[in-house]
Amino acid sequence: MSSINLIESFQEFKDAENIDRPTLMKVIEDVFKTLLRKKYGTDENFDVIVNDQTGDLEIFRRRIIVEDGFSEDDNLEIEYAEAVKIEPDYSVGEEVYEEINVIDFGRRAILAAKQTLAARIGDLKKNNLLKKYAERVGEIISGEVYQIWKKEILLLDDEGNELILPKSEQIPTDFFKKGEGVRAVVKKVEMRNNTPIIVLSRTHSSFLEKLLEIEVPEIMDGLIVIRKIVREPGERAKVAVESYDDRIDPVGACVGMKGSRIHGIVRELRNENIDIINFTANSQLLIQRSLTPAKINRIELDTEGSHADVYLEPDQVSLAIGKKGVNIKLAQELTGFGIDVYRDVQESEVEYDIDLSEFSDEIEPWIIEEFKRIGCDTALSVLELSAEELERRTDLEKETIQEVRAVLQAEFNEE
Fold this sequence. Notes:
elongated, disordered N terminus, 26% strand, 17 helices, five-stranded antiparallel β-sheet, CATH 2.40.50.140, alpha+beta, transcription termination
């Protein structure tokens, strides 16, 4: 029999690339059709048959029988004298099926076929990988740290595929060691220099969303819906949730009994503070909830509905703004409103307070703006905070703060 078993010859490709047998057989068929075109100029009168069960490959050539001496193309036509050697019953005009011995292609051609197959399998693997992870964008996957570089970390999934976790997609306090397991969300999949690149992220809002889905069955079941997530990775996150079932408290369900559900997520996110709030269409109430943990006295919205002035007790201003301004920044992203916070003082107090702008002849404007950035827009609002607190919340030096406080205090002493 002039067939050749290719399963053994090409088993290394199947094993290495985890390609299913029918696909492998189709690729082999295409490779040998290419060889036929190179040797005979065409593959139209050839039938390449690959048995996907046994791996046997057979090639048959079809030729028309012509009278002796009238053959114009030996590949397409066969003279009667030659045809009857194959089967005595043949006659002129009939079609002859003749099996081609694969060995006749020669060792060099077989080697070329093997190299072509390797290239084809490589392309197939890349496309499969690209398709596989393109369908998993937004999903959480686990990988093992294989190599650590300055700007990114190389991970391997369960099948040995390479995944990239860039430094910019890591939580600032993330620290990984080789061999350690890491969970992240698939952010994007792209081709670079004909190589599929799977980029992961631990800072994207979808990472927190998927962690919540894992920990809170009500979200997975659709009873609770996450309306919006905003994050400052490693610092704070705010999640607006809504329940379609009046019997379910969405905030309580997400937090869990004694914080049992949220604690695991907080640990995964390197102790990132997570505020879960009830979503509402009431803009004032949403702003109030978004500024948690601060307690709001009153809110004034502008006529265009894009800006809010929030008034709080003096000791609540710093809570509303948060460390490095993170809390108010996230509240603005969550609500879509520009938010300014002010100390809510009584009329009697206002008479004895002085706007910081009044001191522009003694205090440089950029210093005044730095105080206003943290909600201190009057002299008393600055003096009510200690020098240490002001130094922690602003970018000003201790000496500068002391000089400003001295100027402000002197004004009240004169009064």
